[in-house]
Design goal:
The structure is a single chain. This protein is mostly helical. It has a domain at 1-38. The protein is 74% helix and 0% strand. It is built from 20 helices and no strands. It has helices spanning 2-15, 21-34, 54-63, 70-82, 86-99, 104-116, 120-132, 140-150, 156-167, 172-184, 188-201, 206-218, 222-235, 240-253, 256-269, 273-285, 289-301, 308-320, 324-337, 342-375. Helix 1 packs antiparallel against helix 2 (21-34) and helix 5 packs antiparallel against helix 6 (104-116). The protein is elongated, with a radius of gyration of 38 Å.
């Protein structure tokens, strides 16, 4: 059949070169025989076939047109997005936006890709453009509200959040976003009520628990703030800010031991000796020597940790707490490390004199006790 068709086409071409009208017949025959359809922007679609790679699908789309076309670029972006290649998707849809900047769906897609790329400011800008161009998307209000909160837009963003909440007052997402806005606007009691409602439905919402922590902390409801802080660490155990805020919370409550524990956890995730030094100096200057020991206990207990600064502060704290033997042991350890350190040498000598004084006093007390015992008459019964 294919050979017969080919022969027929050859004969027509050969006999009709001087007849231009026959070229139209020739083109139609070739189109029908090869089943070729001209490129149409409405028909750009590649079916999800398992045997085709992503690059195969992109190549097929590009081959469907010899010109730069915005719909073509949008389709390529959609292919990349389906495979989670957000950067390539962003690149392709950006080309579509340049070719047709008034198409709202392109700006909306670009906004979603920026969300996936963790660029909330850019996502928010594109979402606002899509909104101004009257893009149709039932989730656009939610996207605008979320990005308004992410970027802390206290001017235009507040209207997006309020509109989304007004339209969806029973939605946990809308409740938590509105609670966040109330927190920004210092409406703490309203925020507390909304965040409790939202978390009742969506108990794994990390942003919601952060709002709960901050709101309860502002209201000095430390018990509920503490619970929210624990939940945040459970949801994200490597977020150093969650440990810091719990440390500050326990400081406010006057629980130095717990504060020290969470400062140490902070230090493990983010070894910042300057922060720790400032904290220890503050505690020492206020005579809170037990706090210094709490803060340094866990650090010194670590088998790989051996900071001279920490050891020196612990030696001083032990001295202030009248634990001279412990203090002397640390001073001796530091002195053996650097025998030329005049500060360590001088402070060690002071502690040695204190120990010697206490030993003499103990000996005197023992002699006195022995003398009294010998002076007492023996009573025989």
């Amino acid at each position: 059949m294919n050979l017969l068709l080919s022969y027929f086409i050859f004969v027509v071409v050969f006999r009709s070169l001087t007849n231009t009208g026959n070229w139209l017949i020739l083109f139609a025959l070739i189109s029908i025989g090869c089943k070729v359809r001209p490129y149409s922007r409405e028909q750009i679609y590649v079916k999800a076939d398992d045997h085709l790679t992503l690059q195969d699908k992109v190549t097929i789309l590009k081959a469907s047109s010899s010109v730069e076309d915005d719909a073509l670029q949008a389709s390529i972006a959609n292919l990349y997005a389906q495979n989670g290649n957000w950067y390539q998707a962003k690149t392709s849809i950006s080309k579509a936006v340049k070719l047709n900047p008034l198409e709202p769906s392109y700006h909306l897609s670009l906004a979603h890709y920026y969300v996936e790329l963790n660029s909330p400011e850019l996502a928010y800008n594109e979402a606002k453009i899509a909104h101004d161009l009257n893009a149709y998307d039932p989730n656009l209000d939610a996207l605008l509200a979320k990005m308004a909160i992410e970027t802390a837009d206290s001017v235009e963003g507040a209207s997006f959040v309020k509109r989304y909440y007004s339209a969806n007052p029973q939605s946990s997402e809308a409740q938590l976003l509105m609670a966040r806005l109330d927190l920004f606007e210092q409406n703490f009691y309203d925020a507390k009520k909304l965040v409790e409602q939202g978390l009742h439905t969506d108990s794994l919402n990390e942003q919601g628990w952060l709002t709960a922590f901050q709101v309860n902390n502002q209201l000095q409801d430390y018990e509920n703030a503490e619970l929210a802080g624990f939940k945040l660490i459970k949801l994200d155990s490597v977020n150093v800010n969650y440990y810091k805020q719990l440390a500050y919370l326990f400081e406010q409550k006057g629980d130095d031991k717990q504060a020290a524990h969470y400062y140490f956890e902070t230090y493990k995730l983010e070894p910042d000796l300057k922060l720790l030094r400032n904290k220890l100096e503050f505690e020492l200057s206020n005579g809170r020597y037990d706090s210094v020991l709490y803060y340094t206990d866990s650090l010194v207990a670590g088998s790989n940790y051996d900071s001279s600064y920490i050891l020196l502060e612990r030696a001083r704290a032990f001295d202030k707490r009248y634990k001279y033997d412990d203090s002397h042991a640390l001073y001796t350890r530091l002195w053996k490390r650097d025998t030329t350190d005049s500060v360590v040498l001088a402070e060690r000598a002071i502690v040695q004199r204190k120990i010697a004084y206490l030993q003499r006093k103990k000996q005197e007390q023992k002699r006195l006790a022995d003398s009294l015992a010998n002076a007492m008459p023996t009573i025989n019964f």
